Amino acid sequence: MKFDSVIVGGGLAGLVCGIRLARAGRRCAIVSSGQSALHFSSGSFDLLNALPDGTAVTNPAEAVAETIRQAPEHPYAKIGAERFAALADEAAALLSEAGVATEGTTARNHYRVTPMGELKATWLTLKGYVRSEDTATLPWRSVALFNAAGFLDFYTKFLADGFQRMGVACEVHTFNLPAIETIRKNPSEMRSANIARVFDREEHLEALTAILRRETGACEAVLLPAVLGIDRYDAVERLSEALGRPVAVVATLPPSVPGIQTQIRLRRCFQQAGGAYMLGDTAVRYEMQGDRIAALYTNNHGDIAFEANDYVLATGSYFSQGLVAAMDGVREPLFGLDVACAADRGAWYDRDLFAAQPFETFGVRTDDALHGLLEGRPVENLRVIGAGLAGFNPVKEGCGAGVSMLTALEAARRILEK
Amino acid sequence: MTKQFDVIIIGGGATGAGVARDCSLRGIRALLLERSDIATGATGRNHGLLHSGARYAVTDRESAEECIKENMILRRIASHCVDETDGLFLSLPEDGLEFQSKFVEACRAAGIRADMIDPKEALRLEPSANPAMIGAVRVPDGSVDPFRLTMANIIDARAHGAEVLTYHEVSDFIREQNRIAGVVALDRKTGEKQEYRAQVVVNACGIWGHEIARKAGVTINMLPAKGSLLIFGHRVNNIVLNRCRKPADADILVPGDTISLIGTTSSKVPFDEVDNMYVTADEVDLLLREGMKLAPSLAHTRILRAYAGVRPLVASDDDPSGRSVSRGIVVLDHATRDGLEGFITITGGKLMTYRLMAEWTTDLVCRKLSLAARCTTAEEKLPGSREPESEVSRRLISVPVAQRESSIYRHGEMAEKLPNGDAARRSLVCECEEVSVGEVEYALKELDVNNLVDLRRRTRVGMGTCQGELCACRAAGVMAEAGKYCVRRAKEDLVQFLNERWKGMAPVAWGDTLRESEFTMWIYAGVCGLSNQKTE
Amino acid sequence: MTEQSENNFEQCIKCTVCTVYCPAAAANPLYPGPKQAGPDGERLRLKRPEFYDEALKYCLNCKRCEVACPSNVRIGDIIQLARIKFSRKKPGLREFVLANTDLVGSLSTPLAPVVNATVAWKPVKLIMDKVMRIDHRRTFPKYAFGTFESWMRRQRAAQAAFPQQVSYFHGCYVNYNNPPLGRDFVKVMNALGYGVQLLGKEKCCGVALISNGLIGQAKRQAKVNIASIREAVIGRNMPVLGTSSTCVFTLRDEYQHLLGIDTSEVRDRIELATRYIYRLLSSGEASLRFRRDAPKLRVAYHTPCHMEKLGWSYYSIELLKMIPSVELTVLDSQCCGIAGTYGFKKENYETSQRIGEGLFRQIEASGCDLVATDCETCKWQIEMSTSKRVEHPLSILAAALE
After folding, report:
1. Are C94 and C133 in contact (CB under 8 A)?
2. Any idea which fold C297-400 has?
3. Is there a single domain that holds both residue A88 and residue A157?
4. Which of A303, B109, B395, C318 is the most exposed place for a label (fewest CB within 10 A)?
């Protein structure tokens, strides 16, 4: 199989890179070993919430220079402070063109509401999700908060508590439908995605509308868990119209409906641009010619190789096995690229799970053009993007989505400019 | 206002709970005070091995005899806490067969059934055993769940009139001349102090008994010995595997509930470490290396976590230097030993002999109270073990299989008390261990649960493969909804619970265990936005 | 990255992704779902066999959980192996009839017109429904009058004349129900310069035997097939090609994973015809000439579940794209709900149709003239449940050849 570019890894980074390349007319394939970490999305995309030293960031565009100064190996350093804002805007535009409508700007973080009622800084939030411009207020003074009766992955009590601390009156309700009762018969499968499928059907959304109309008192807005459809994207708008007041949703514990929807739309966008998306396949072997990768072999395709001018590694970190930790070190399992990692296992961890974990900053080393390094030498036609890169902490710095999308666009730019 | 009892027992481990039960069954009004939760000390931090006594047969005949007797008793009275797996003592090429004949002879002399079997037969019985073995002996080992065992004793003690107060720390003794007349206890939940009086106070605090004794004004020479263990992700073996040699480090692999565990290491630690022990990388390496000799497949098995317990070694009274320690049961009547009336220390021994320890202690309590009541704990079955599992299963037939069998496995016939009539209560909080909303509600209502860690000990929430990733938030949600605590406490509890899990995972966090940890961190610190207020 | 079979279930980190993509759990609350039935359940079953839940029979064995899993857990295999190991339900007459596609086919083809008319007759359907619990709303695949094998035997000399040879695992469906597909395959291979031979002895691949719990028979048939395949691959250095994605998947993977039959020597030489043809065409070893006069045909390609698992829809799609007259849409990959014999069972009929709903909607909305797919049971289900005709990509290709 011959392509211009082959991308290994079909999550946020791989898809954004693939879309960018395919839209520029390149023949692309994405090989993805299972579904991606997008399935655990919060409904928002973070760009930069804190400096490596922990200082909170309000303006990512401004703070990036200091980030690079503090962490010279940070992936943002490969992009450079000058191009950072432009790439971020390009990423936001790409999402929007793919049908992933978001709100937020690169010059100022806003706050999303978490399923546990915390406010967390972020960059872009999906349209229809609860967000706030500061940590002290919501756009409303009173809300009605609904949960599906017996749904265990959404915490109305926690949310109500968080809202009350912001001075927002919150009444809590539950809703129930025969179709939800049916799901509940199964002790384990009353999950966000299964509830969401119920609302893909028009009659169930209408039944929910009737319940909300009946139950909602004099509040300004109605809030729900993000379970209002997988195939449909109009539920929030429809409910809002029917109820005559703002309706917004809050993400749940996994699986994440906003994440699944984002994955579906980005994949569709990639395929519509002519890309081939191969799910459930794992790249296992490659051939090199000099400093270039000549062919890539996967489990499913056996002797039929993927041949391309450019290869992109977007396999993520430990979760998606882009990095594999063994007792004696961390490696990149496909190409065996150089990995930045502390030698002594004792130095990988902090005893507080919620502190900055050193192992999070381990990852693949690249040159400034994002070429993966093999024993110190750049592989000429291999770029590394996304969560598998070394030098940053996605959780503590709040920059996971940003690093994925911006390095993806940067790699695509370099490939296209060649 | 001072409250009056016949006896006060300090320490909510198996021994303390056993004493409380024994006293209550003999009509003695007992109060049990535990500074934290039940089974938090050595009780809950060992192999959970139902010793046949074989391990001690060669070196300590007395312990061996005690073990086999108690083994048979526990099978009868605590059947829902016991897995009758049997055990194999494997002779590996490096061990030779010399020890084996001595071993079998000693077992038989101690009254322990010991059958020499062909290695091929041993491998058929236990396919995970090292095929390189040159000999095998089958003995009546088993496994016992220390949390369930302790809880069942507490439940029965309460049913017979005992009062049990967890999170109550003894801050002082009430001393009247040369006798202990009671204690002052701090309620750690409210911060209030309260006086409790009794004719006898029993110190059943394990290694912490050293400090309690000091507070009472007597000295016991205890030496904390740390033992580390590893928990594997699933039940690798269905028969306990031991090495047929002189007892050494990491030579027992025990199947316990859904997991298997290997242990232990053994090292002396200073007293200031006993409340917060970390398993070191060296210990992990040793446990893994030795464990693989018993069951080579451990090399490819996920390690869920590592933990350590402290065994209280008691120096013999005639040797204050502490070099000669007793591993047997030690009952100290401080009246005869130190001239302090009304104070007893029970220590030494092992989980296996908790009942016997309780019996001897209660016998002494009876003598002090001038009572002639007979001990019945060897005959009276514990709650949960009073009906055959199959009977209970038949009555709960409408509950989905895995959930039904799990709840019966954990609670015996008490599983019928779980609210499970409606679908919402059958929803799973913990999917790895099949813990339903109903089971959590039951534990909150009946089993004295104050936080997620307590809940884990009662139900196995968070003890499965994901170590709380999916279930901790659900459980905290159910607890908050049930009015157990406010949202702020719920979040603190979540953070604490996850950090307690992480403490065990970090020493073994590579491979899938690290993937799991990274995922957990994304969910709680990322998606949920929780943070540790204590360290921020 | 490993798929090491030992303790594979432990690679599950409880991320729940599989549950999002399980068609059965979404449509049937009695099914515990892939996570519970698979890795979670496995751990409990290792503790005690009593934890086995007969509700695992509701698994479609579509393997979509495996495709979705980011941890390489062989969830579907775990579930099927548990059924094989622990199920105490014995297969009945219905299971025997549905699973023995081979036997029923060879009894039916000589009497095809009678059999077809009879099983389409309402009273018979109702009796089958009542007595055997085979749902009366199902349309049965029609039997051909005369088998593909008997046709092939008449072609032996002509086929032997080609310079290069492949062997063909035609499967029960081509043999008894749709010999024209087999003839289309032969036509395309001949056009590429390849002659087609039958295997020494071909039995049903056994996919239905496995799913209906007839494991002993499945193993016996698998051994016969692997012996014939070995003879073709190793003895005569010929690849073995198939036109059914399910047969090929079963031979390649299920034999090894579920039946414990060693296929390592031949596995890589068993492949789908579309993949083999793609390789010939893309490497320039062979070429095809298409008719210029063919009318425009709007085709929607449906990826069958086992094709999704094989990861080979790319080849069928690329072949269809080569046909000048074809205007191709690729449908989002979704299960059609039939899952072989699953949808024929009365208790599964409604689940089956509910699972397929999304796909049926997509198909109707696509505005296609016909649907292309590599699986025969998907074809039955889609033809019964939508207004569209369904063809195999090779039949479309054969019709477009000059």
Report:
1. yes
2. Rossmann fold (3.40.50)
3. no
4. A303
A120 in any annotated domain: no
Decide the pairing of beta strands A283-289 and A292-298.
Answer: antiparallel
In this structure, the answer to whether residues B217 and B326 fall within a common structural domain is yes
- Whether C72 has its CB under 8 Å from any CB of chain B: the answer is no
What is the C-alpha separation between B481 and B471, in angstroms, rounded? 15
Residues 105-124 of A with CB under 8 A from B: 114-120
| Domain C8-86 shares a fold with domain C297-400 | no
Smallest Cβ distance to C36: which of A188, A268, A333? A188
Residue B319 has pLDDT above 70, yes or no: no
Residue A30 lies in a domain: yes
The length of chain A is 418
Structural domain for B438, as ranges: 422-527
Complex confidence, ipTM: 0.97
Say yes or no: B203 and B266 in one domain: no
Task: Kindly state the average pLDDT of the residues A394-409.
Answer: 97
Instruction: Name the pLDDT band for B322 (thresholds 50, 70, 90).
Output: very low
Q: Are C9 and C78 within 8 A, CB to CB?
A: yes
* Residue C356 forms contact with B (CB below 8 Å): no
Q: Tell me which chain C residues have a C-beta less than 8 angstroms from the C-beta of A194.
A: 19, 25-26
Angle between helical axes of B452-459 and B471-481 (0-180°, round to 10): 110
Residue by residue, what is the 3-state secondary structure of B29-50? CEEEECCCCCCCCHHHCCCCEE
Peptide bond into A255 cis (omega under 30): yes
Task: Indicate whether B356 and B240 sit together in one domain.
Answer: no
Q: Count how many residues are written for chain C.
A: 402
**Min Cα separation B431/chain A (Å):** 7
Range of the domain at A225: 130-250
A161: contact with B, CB 8 A cutoff: yes
On whether residue A111 sits in a domain, the answer given is: no
Give every CB contact of residue C188 below 8 A, 6+ residues apart in sequence: C273, C277, C288, C394, C397, C398, C401
Q: Token pair 């709650």 is at which residue?
A: B383
Using CA atoms, how far apart are residues B370 and B363, in angstroms rounded to an integer? 10
pLDDT digits 0-9 by tens, B19-40: 999 999 999 999 999 999 999 9
CA–CA min distance A368, chain B (Å): 27
Q: pTM of the predicted model, to two decimals? A: 0.96
Provide the residue ranges of all domains of chain C, joining segments of one domain with +: 8-86, 93-132, 148-282, 297-400
CA distance linking residue C284 with residue A2, whole number of Å: 13
Q: Which of residues 28-67 of A touch B (CB under 8 A)?
A: 37, 40-42
Average pLDDT, chain A: 97
Classify residue A255: in a domain, yes or no: no
Interchain pair B301, C10: CB under 8 A:
yes
Quote the CA–CA distance of B198 and B30 in Å, as a whole number. Answer: 9
The model's pLDDT over B391-442, given as tens digits with 9 standing for 90+, comes to 999 999 999 999 999 999 999 999 999 998 889 999 999 999 999 999 999 9
**pLDDT digits over B255-279, tens only?**
999 999 999 999 999 999 999 899 9
Residue B12 lies in a domain: yes
